[in-house]
Amino acid sequence: MQIKPTHIEHIGIAVRDLDQAISLYEKLLGTPCYAIEEVPDQKVRTAFFKVGETKIELLASTAEDGPVAKFIEKRGEGIHHVAYAVEGLPSALKAAEREGMQLIDKEPRRGAEGMQIAFLHPRSTLGVLTEFCEEPRTENPS
Ligand code: ZN
What we know:
Blueprint: E1 7-14, H1 18-29, E2 35-39, E3 44-51, E4 54-61, H2 67-75, E5 78-85, H3 89-98, E6 109-110, E7 116-120, E8 130-134
Parallel strand pairs: 1-4, 5-8
Antiparallel strand pairs: 1-5, 2-3, 3-4, 6-7, 7-8
The structure holds zinc ion.
Zinc ion (ZN) binds next to strand 1 and strand 5.
């Protein structure tokens, strides 16, 4: 199978101060943040906004050694990753690997909003940390 995302599910933006970023984005997007969630797995607190079918995910690190803290240290605040909605995440990962892309996650794991997610290494995707995500199956509630 080929990888064929249905849409950009969200764009992740790394920020230092989540509360400040939320108030800026509420003005920028003219819509309130609809969810704040901590994802201990990734050592982040996330805040979500809807823009049509796509979301903006603000990410602030909860630990000095977290991946988002390291990202900001190296590259400053800004776009952290692009997330594509795919149907059939495990086979999308296999297809990406077959195409020579480097997987950070060989298996889907649980991300914010109960989504199944997996990342591709930016080294193999022209410097852009790339996420695939899929709504959880109903027979497998989180
Ligand atoms: Zn994401």
